[in-house]
UniProtKB/TrEMBL annotation:
GO cellular component annotations of the record: nucleus; transferase complex
Residue spans of the WD repeats: 17-58, 59-100, 101-142, 143-184, 188-228, 229-270
SUPFAM superfamilies registered for this protein in UniProt: WD40 repeat-like
A Pfam match: WD40
Keyword annotations from UniProtKB, A to Z: Repeat, WD repeat
UniProt name for this protein: WD repeat-containing protein 38 isoform X1
Lineage: Eukaryota, Metazoa, Chordata, Craniata, Vertebrata
Domain of life assignment: Eukaryota
Keyword Repeat listed: yes
UniProt xrefs under CDD domains: WD40 (cd00200)
Species in which this protein is naturally found: Erinaceus europaeus
Length: 297
């Protein structure tokens, strides 16, 4: 899909990835958009060629459903989380597990890499956020404060802060600059439902999607919501800023994909009907919009 100018959103190509043995819980595109990850209820992580639809590899090791997956920004690693309470780090080139990170007490629901791919944050049903060193697998910090399950996370472009979203309807910004302890830098309140997704823009603005069917665009330094985006009929499942940070794409737990003008808060594009449920959206470096989701076969 291309969303370069208003009115230009059109379906370019549709590929069906149909070899899962269970429901797909999440999906993620590689930084260059060439490969697609899918995390399945069947306990496996799948990697696909975006253009051909070919299955590149299927990796097992988790002892429960895989809940979430994400590429590292350098594209070399994949992190997956599971209801088996663990995070696994995978080598993309060799298609093998490098590390199993243990420490969560319940299902792990989110994972995110720092911009330099050297640190990893995770959160889950135990209400805790953990910060890990990618190379060694060592736990660096254990962050406590959320009052319900942690479902989303993202690092700021500067790597100085980590944002986490919870079913307690709040977003917490953790200051990572302190050597010994991590402190809550800010708590952002404004949503009336569970926080389902978070994403930083290149300029440091923070987008959040919620079960309240809205998206907020925040300026974290002032704790202010710059825009509230309304238009989804269901809860917001995924958001992504364009490379220049001027647009934001969103998917609801439905067949609807929207593109918004971040400055005005106006929805400039809507596409629906291609997928039954849109799971995730991402922009490629050249500004093309990629969307993956489920189709009822």
């Amino acid at each position: 899909m291309n969303s370069g100018t208003q009115g230009s959103l059109a379906v370019g190509k549709v590929k069906i990835f149909s070899r899962h043995r269970g429901e797909v819980n999440s999906s993620a595109f590689s930084p260059n958009g060439q490969t697609l990850l899918t995390a399945s209820e069947d306990g496996y992580v799948y990697c696909w060629d975006t253009h051909s639809g070919k299955l590149l590899w299927r990796l097992g090791g988790h002892t429960g459903p895989v809940k979430f997956c994400r590429f590292s920004p350098d594209g070399l690693l994949v992190a997956s989380t599971s209801s088996d309470h663990t995070i696994r780090l995978w080598d993309v080139a060799e298609a093998k597990c490098l590390l199993v990170l243990k420490g969560h007490q319940r299902s792990v629901e989110t994972v995110s890499f720092s911009p330099d791919s050297k640190q990893l944050a995770s959160g889950g049903w135990d209400k805790q956020v953990k910060l890990w060193e990618v190379q060694s697998g060592q736990m660096l910090h254990h962050l406590v404060g959320h009052r319900d399950s942690v479902q989303s996370s993202d690092f700021a472009p500067s790597s100085d802060c980590l944002a986490t979203g919870s079913w307690d309807s709040t977003i917490r910004i953790w200051d990572l600059r302190a050597v010994e302890t991590v402190i809550i830098h800010q708590e952002l309140e404004g949503h009336s439902g569970n926080i389902s997704c978070l994403c930083y823009s290149v300029s440091g603005l923070l987008g959040s999607g919620s079960w309240d069917k809205t998206i907020h665009i925040w300026k974290p330094s002032t704790r202010s919501s710059l825009n509230q985006l309304k238009g989804h009929a269901t809860w917001v499942k995924s958001i992504a800023f364009s490379p220049n940070g001027l647009q934001l794409a969103s998917t609801g737990y439905s067949n609807m994909v929207k593109v918004w003008d971040c400055k005005t808060g106006v929805c400039i594009e809507t596409l629906k009907g291609v997928l039954d449920v849109a799971h995730t959206c991402a922009f490629t470096p050249d500004g093309k919009l990629l969307v993956s989701g489920a189709v009822d076969s």
